[in-house]
UniProtKB/TrEMBL annotation, chain A:
Family stated for the protein in its record: Belongs to the UPF0065 (bug) family.
Name of a matching Pfam family: TctC
Highest taxon of the lineage: Bacteria
Protein name per the record: Tripartite tricarboxylate transporter substrate binding protein
Annotated keywords: Signal
Zinc among keywords: no
First and last residue of the signal peptide: 1-27
Organism, scientific name: Bradyrhizobium archetypum
InterPro entries: BUG (IPR005064), Bug_dom1 (IPR042100)
UniProtKB/TrEMBL annotation, chain B:
Domain of life: Bacteria
The protein's name: Tripartite tricarboxylate transporter permease
Bilayer-crossing regions: 20-39, 45-69, 109-135, 147-166, 173-200, 206-223, 244-266, 315-333, 354-380, 386-406, 464-485
Source taxonomy: Bacteria, Pseudomonadati, Pseudomonadota, Alphaproteobacteria, Hyphomicrobiales
Pfam family for this entry, one: TctA
Domain DUF112, chain residue ranges per copy: 20-438
Keyword Transmembrane tagged: yes
InterPro entries recorded: DUF112_TM
Alphabetical keyword list: Membrane, Transmembrane, Transmembrane helix
Organism: Bradyrhizobium archetypum
Automatic annotation (TrEMBL), chain C:
Organism: Bradyrhizobium archetypum
Protein name: Tripartite tricarboxylate transporter TctB family protein
The organism's place on the tree of life at top rank: Bacteria
A Pfam family of this chain: TctB
Keywords noted in UniProt: Membrane, Transmembrane, Transmembrane helix
Keyword Transmembrane helix part of the UniProt annotation: yes
Segments traversing the membrane: 43-65, 77-110, 122-141
InterPro entries: DUF1468
Length: 326, 499, 149
């Protein structure tokens, strides 16, 4: 009898609490509890999605699904843990996959290869961004904002949720494509950025709808446009970027689920099927809509292609603008 | 009169039987996790989030808020009894609270902490009801410029925390500032002093450093002493505070509550400023400042009141502006959205029953905490009767698990080990770690806000004096500095150095 | 308490600060400094490190100049036992699980004092381990394995 199993017997006898050790029985494909790693602190969109999906996934596969927050290094720490796990589909990653697309360009010392070490399962949702300005800026439409910016170069300061984050890169790309100049002011997260624009410390913002839209609805900020294919139900008079003729209409939060690279395709397919089933539940659709998001299920191939495409596109913007990670 | 109608409406919501039950569940869970070092309210709330989907929005919010302020109560218990601060705010309670415990006055310290918290909670509830709108205006007046000035004031106050040499305190604040700079720089995205370790990129976590330097360092130093002279004298003199204790503690509670209520409203400044600045204020006002650090009851009552008042008024930006003041508030917003309620400034007019129900429940919850905690004081104190040879391994184990639990990372456990060694070294050379911890918390914000202010003002330094709030705060800083450098202080400093 | 020519407390603190400051200056040598109005990432670390260097030199000098008592001798047993206890927990928690790591950490910590009796310590370690598993994993849902995985 090996030492660990001896200790197990001794401790189990003392505790006399049965069922502490995971039992082997269950679904054929899943032999032990599944870890669903969220590489951010609790409370963010990824975390809430994970806690929404995990009970459903658990019921579907007959094993418990444990949400684990592993924050750090813009999501790279948690992603690394999944990349280095056993490739058997028992370790999942749910995150804003935009960070995965920018990581190779931002961090020269990335400890894993996004393409090889992670296997895409499915996209989960898309969350649109809102473009808004402080009331002191005389702009009621995107066009007026662009005109104002052109007339006053470097007077506007646009808040973003972190250097190298998707909102920062979107702002940089927009300025370049529109031929305008504004100061990029980094904050720790979207909530802090929103607060800064409400108080007038910075005066423009592009940020996720959940954190910023309430201020627009309450007229503390002037909303100008939203990203995504449709307008947002709670602010129907805001045009989409496309309608307003702005570039970057597909910018936003893209939440997706991945697992360890090298996981057998059959396992990936099973997970993809289960997650797509969950995403079709009206209850889940409604909760995601309440987050200001749209459900976006994809096949693993579609997801892989999306990731590849985004990595190239954003990589170019990052290099041209000279944005650095570590 | 509208105010009383609102409060009445809130009370009627808070006193519904199911809401009372969820409030009780919340404060009990909160107290429990507060007592356990390391396990903070954030992971607990995250864990309970799915469970709240099935509740009514009011019940869910009441329970989650209960966990939050319940944890503040529980945290001071651990700080007083075993000198392990589980969060920023308990560091201050460690200083004099644990000293009181060593003198056999653990019961008094625990009781006064609970009473101060209840007092502050009651006043803060009224403050939220009466002043939330004007105070929320204040929150919006604070931009990077004002934050920078406020943080400078906070750091100057930190020097008062330790009772030894001013020069050593200053050096410790700077050391804390330096530790706070580790990680990815917010303004440029560049990693600093991370030595290629990915776990360092988000900076050093507060809890492993505090638990290592305070809790474990103290344990090692304790074990060097002969058994009979160890930590807490096991003869407990009194459980109930005497009248003299109340007389000393009451003014401190009032000042602490005021300070906490105002500072709590400022988003971002967070949990650190109210208790630290209250402690500094009490020490400045005391007729005999040398009692501080040696078991002064004001040093427990003031910060505990400030902490609890701040914890409650930090709900003001959330309720009136929809701005989360800290990570936990962000989590509560998540919970609201799951309920189909769009949080934001309109919430007060659209969901008055919810908002006022939560506000009134805070008072109800604080009352419950007092009723639960006062009888528990005896039980907690009797825990000190466990022989030290059994108590300290248990503390070490709980510190390990708690530190791991903050970010589910073993790196933090290693960090705590390193800090235990440094903490022991500091005790050996007679330096106190409290100023370092404040520097660690405030340092990164200081730099971030300074650089942001400069970026927005195109490098114009005059913004710090041309904006009125900032100018006033910097004026106070100047007066404090002058007072510290005045001959009298130089003399006391010399005495301190010579001792 | 040994009488010594130098103030060891000040001297050690001073040397510690100098070492930390020097390490910082080396670690941040490649960062952009900028100037006060437009700081680079290297500005604050260097300013703070230089100030610490100043304090360090001050304390070192004062420690050498003044006559004072030294520090109480270091007792290695508690120091090493506590550090080892934390270290063993860090090494084993994720590999062997919380149950075993807890027993190991408590046992090692108990070596810090000679007062413990082996039977009592073992029993207490097992009890604590069980309590920790119930409390942290079962009730608080800490994602840590209970057994080796």
């Amino acid at each position: 009898m090996s030492l660990p199993s001896l200790a197990r017997v001794v401790a189990a006898a003392i505790l006399s609490v049965c069922a502490l050790a995971p039992s082997g029985a269950g679904a054929q494909n899943f032999e032990r509890p599944v870890r669903l790693i969220v590489p951010f602190a609790p409370g963010g969109t990824s975390d809430i999605l994970a806690r929404l999906i995990s009970p459903k996934l658990s019921a579907a596969i007959g094993q418990s699904v444990v949400v684990e927050n592993k924050p750090g290094a813009a999501g790279n720490l948690g992603a690394d843990a999944v990349a280095k796990a056993q490739p058997d589909g028992h370790t999942l990653l749910l995150m804003d996959v935009g960070s995965l697309a920018t990581a190779p360009s931002l961090f020269s010392d990335l400890t894993f290869d996004v393409e090889k070490d992670l296997a895409p399962i499915s996209m989960v949702m898309f969350g649109p961004y809102v473009l808004a300005v402080h009331e002191s800026i005389p702009a009621k439409s995107p066009k007026e904002l662009i005109d104002y910016a052109k007339a006053n170069p470097n007077k506007l300061s646009i808040a973003n949720s972190g250097v190298g984050g998707a909102t920062h890169i979107t702002a940089v790309a927009m300025a370049k494509q529109l031929g305008i100049q504004w100061k990029n002011v980094p904050y720790k997260g979207g909530a802090a950025a929103s607060r800064a624009v409400v108080s007038g410390e910075s005066n423009v913002i592009i940020n996720g709808a959940p954190a910023t839209l309430p201020f627009v609805v309450n007229k503390q900020l002037t909303g100008l446009a939203v990203t995504g294919e449709q307008r947002i139900a709670s602010a129907p008079d805001l045009p989409t970027f496309k309608e307003a003729g702005l570039p970057g209409g597909d910018a936003g939060t893209w939440q997706g689920i991945l697992t360890t690279g090298g996981t057998p395709p059959a396992m990936v397919a099973r997970l993809n099927a289960e997650i797509r089933k969950i995403l079709e539940l009206p209850e889940i659709q409604q909760k995601i809509a309440e987050q200001g998001g749209v459900v976006r299920a994809q096949s693993p191939e579609e997801f892989r292609n999306w990731l590849k495409d985004a990595t190239t596109r954003w990589g170019t913007i990052i290099r041209e603008a000279g944005i650095k990670g570590s | 009169m509208e105010l009383f109608n609102n409060l009445l409406m809130g009370l009627s919501t808070a006193l519904e039987l199911n809401n009372l039950v969820f409030c009780l569940i919340g404060v009990v869970i909160g107290t429990a996790i507060g007592v356990l070092p390391g396990i903070g309210p954030i992971p607990t709330v995250a864990l309970l989030l799915p469970f709240t989907f099935g509740l009514s929005p009011a019940s869910a919010m009441i329970m989650l808020a209960g966990i939050f302020y319940g944890a503040q109560y529980g945290g001071s218990t651990t700080a007083i009894l075993v000198n392990v601060p589980g969060e920023t705010s308990s560091v201050v309670t460690c200083i004099d609270g644990h000293e009181m415990a060593k003198q056999g006055r653990a019961g008094t310290a625990l009781a006064i902490a609970a009473i101060a918290s209840f007092f502050a909670g009651t006043i803060a509830t009224i403050v939220i009801a009466v002043l939330s709108v004007p105070l929320s205006v204040l929150a919006l007046k604070f931009t990077a410029v004002e934050y920078f000035s406020l943080l400078v004031l906070g750091l100057i106050a930190a020097v008062v925390l330790a009772h030894g040499s001013v020069a050593k305190s200053l050096a410790m604040v700077l050391l804390g500032l330096l530790l706070g700079l580790v990680g990815i720089d917010v303004s440029s995205g560049v990693a600093r002093m991370t030595f290629g370790i990915a776990a360092l990129s988000d900076g050093l976590d507060f809890v492993p450093i505090a638990m290592g330097m305070f809790g474990l360092g103290e344990i090692i130093a304790n074990l060097e002493r002969p058994a009979e002279r160890r930590v807490v004298s096991q003869s407990i003199r009194s459980l109930i505070p005497r009248r003299a204790d109340f007389r000393a503690a009451f003014p401190a509670m009032v000042r602490g509550t005021t300070l906490g209520s105002v500072l709590g409203v400022l988003p971002g400044g967070g949990a650190a400023l109210p208790p630290f600045s209250s402690y500094a204020l009490e020490k400045k006002l005391a007729r005999d400042p040398s009692r501080f650090g040696k078991g002064a009851i004001e040093g427990v009552a003031g910060p505990e009141a400030a902490n609890n008042a701040g914890a409650q008024t930090s709900f003001i930006p959330l309720l009136t502006l929809g701005i989360p003041a800290n990570a936990l508030m962000a989590l509560m917003i998540g919970a609201l959205m799951m309920q189909g309620i769009q949080p934001g400034p309109q919430i007060m007019t659209e969901q008055p029953k919810l908002v006022w129900g939560v506000i009134a429940s805070m008072w109800v919850g604080n009352l419950m905490l007092l009723v639960i905690n006062l009888p528990l004081v005896g039980l907690w104190v009797s825990m000190l009767k466990i022989p030290y040879r059994l108590l300290f391994p248990a503390i070490v184990l709980f510190c390990c698990i708690g530190t791991y639990g903050i970010a589910n990372s073993l790196f933090n456990v290693w960090l705590m080990m390193g800090c235990a060694m440094i903490g022991y070294f500091f005790i050996k050379i007679g330096v106190e770690p409290a100023p370092l911890l404040l520097g660690l918390v405030l340092g990164p914000q200081l730099e971030e806000n300074f650089r942001r202010a400069m970026l927005l003002a195109d490098g114009d330094f005059t913004v710090f004096v041309s904006r009125p709030i900032s100018a006033v705060i910097l004026g106070v800083v100047a007066v404090l500095l002058l007072a510290m450098l005045s001959p009298e202080i130089v003399r006391t400093r010399k005495e301190a150095l010579a001792e | 308490m040994t009488r010594s020519r130098i103030d060891l407390q000040d001297l050690l603190f001073g040397l510690f600060l100098v070492a930390v400051a020097a390490a910082t200056l080396v670690a941040t040598r490649n960062l952009t400094v900028g100037h006060a109005a437009d700081m680079g990432p290297g500005y604050m670390p260097r300013v703070v490190a230089l100030a610490l260097m100043g304090f360090g030199i001050f304390f070192t000098g004062r420690g050498l100049w003044r006559m004072r008592v030294g520090i109480a001798p270091v007792q290695w047993r508690p120091l090493l036992a506590i550090l080892a206890s934390v270290g063993v927990f860090a090494l084993t928690a994720e590999r062997l699980g919380l149950a075993i790591a807890s027993v190991a950490a408590v046992m090692l910590a108990s070596f810090a004092t000679r007062e413990g009796r082996l039977v009592e310590t073992v029993a207490f370690a097992l009890l604590l381990s069980g309590a920790a598993v119930l409390l942290f994993v079962k009730l608080l849902g800490l994602p840590i394995p209970i057994w080796p995985r």
